Amino acid sequence: MKKTDFGLIGLGVMGKSISLNIADNGFSISVYNRTEDGEAHVVKTFIEKNNTYHNIQGFTSLSEFVASIERPRKIMLMVKAGDAVGSVIEKLLPHLDKNDIIIDGGNSLYSDTIRRSKCLAYKNIYFVGCGISGGEEGARKGPSIMPGGSAKAYAHIAPILEKIAAKDKNNQACCTHIGPNGSGHFVKMIHNGIEYAEMQLLAEIYALLIVNHSNEDIAQILSDWHTRHEASYLLEITIAILRKKEDDTYIIDHILDKALSKGTGSWSSKAALELGIPATMISSAVFARYISTFKDQRVRFSKSIKKKNSLKRVNYKSLEYAYGFARIINHQQGFELIQHASKHYNWALNLSEIARIWTNGCIIRSKLMEDSIVILKGNSSYFDNKTVFERLHNSESDVTKILRHGMSNRVALDTFSSAYNYWVGATTGNSSANMIQALRDYFGAHRYQRNDKDSSEFFHTNWQ
Ligand code: 6PG
Predict the structure, then answer these.
(1) Which CATH class is domain 6-181?
(2) What are phi and psi of 57, to 5 degrees?
(3) Which residues are tagged catalytic?
(4) Burial of 227 (0-12, 13-18, 19+ CB in 10 A)
(5) For a Cys-Cys bond, which of 66, 220, 228, 280 suits 418, CB 3.0-4.6 Å?
């Protein structure tokens, strides 16, 4: 039998969709799924359901699966991030040959990817940590793909990945060689971090409006925004969610207000803390989800709170501008984190190119992302762009108006307030950090620099 172009392990929702996407694009593919834990039928069912595809071969034997693929083999793992990835690699290894390529298409932690790449390099196996965004539909019709690994390995997989990826406005693939190992998963992790804050902003807008608007009214307001600067995939699906009914009632009204997460948001925050980058909006969004999970306590304590709902409606224009403001700050923080990781790990990442592959296929695709291709060309900060800076500056009073409205209506605005505080902090020449330094020196003799002396010198005062 003729060998196939590609192999894929893990026929979950994403694995199935990517396999069909690869097959639709004219490549032949071997698929394998584990047979334990009630999954014995998975491959058979998938092949039967897609029996019109003659370029897909299904296997329940790992050795037969590997043997069916053309060398150097390109094998994508679409298994749950974490231990499962390691255990599949272990099982796979005895069947592989020198220069074969394993591609991890899940949301693995980038430090795991770096470690796995190093181990596999000793065995002459290439490992590519590959972020894939777009959910089920993206995987099926064209995701945004973020592969990180050796350039040699990328050259082998590029023809397939670039073909199955979404296309940008210039018909270029939303897939690029991100950089060395670990960088692909790092960039995907920050994509998700930005996604967390974007979603939290939308949830806060919903919280501000639902006080005295119907779901349909809110959908209408957001649809209006969608025609301008703030157009995005997440805004579009928020509108659709607000309008979706089941048996004459809105589904959104029946969804329990506990936001779960799988880890990429908190990993982004951890990376920000480790690298010393103030990605405050991502952290706020993660913590807002955590607060939401304490549902029982929230309900219990809420009974002792007198809610004072003002009937005054929020100013829609101010809200739209504040939303635009906060989104720029969110993107600024996310890209700054990528920029610093790039320096720290010596990855030489191209921010503008990352923005480009995020303009289609992925969850955070938006008009702002399209603008970011230009904004980030040669710049690592949105603040260096004069037009963007003026826009932020001009929106300041709208943001404060929205924050005041939230406070007087007891609506928590975690990410909006983080955005505002970051902006003020990042544009304040003389901050109060001198007090922090004095306190540190007082109780711990940690020493401080002076503004009237050479800043390379450190001083201590005997405060008592
Ligand atoms: C994507 C999504 C995808 C997934 C997130 C959800 O880019 O396609 O980000 O990766 O939906 O992992 O993460 P949480 O479950 O943590 O919200």
Answers:
(1) alpha beta
(2) -115, 135
(3) 188, 195
(4) exposed
(5) 280
For residues 419-430, give the mean pLDDT.
Answer: 98
Backbone angles phi, psi at 62, to 5 degrees: -65, -40
Fold identical between 188-426 and 438-464?
no
CA atoms within 13 A on the CB side of 167: 5
Residues for the chain: how many in total? 464
Q: What are the phi and psi torsion angles at 7 (to 5°)?
A: -125, 145
Tokens of 336: 């700054």
In short, whether 262's Cβ falls inside 6 Å of ligand 1 is yes
Q: Which two tokens stand for residue 401?
A: 């108006």
Asked if residues 331 and 368 have their Cβ atoms less than 8 Å apart, the reply is yes
Instruction: Give the domain ranges of the chain.
Output: 6-181, 188-426, 438-464
CATH number for the domain formed by residue range(s) 188-426: 1.10.1040.10
Choose one of 14, 80, 107 to mutate for the ligand 1 pocket test, by most ligand atoms within 8 angstroms of C-beta. 107
Taking only the tens place, the pLDDT of each residue in 22-80 is 999 999 999 999 988 888 899 999 999 999 999 999 999 999 999 999 999 999 999 99
The protein residue with its alpha carbon nearest to ligand 1, atom 7, reads 133
Q: Per the confidence metrics, is the pTM higher than 0.90? A: yes
For the CA atoms of 195, 196, 200, 202, what is the dihedral angle to 10 degrees? 20
pLDDT per residue over 344-381, tens digit each?
A: 999 999 999 999 999 999 999 999 999 999 999 988 79
CATH architecture of 438-464: Up-down Bundle (1.20)
**E strand or H helix at 194:** helix 183-210
Determine the atom of ligand 1 nearest the C-alpha atom of 264.
16
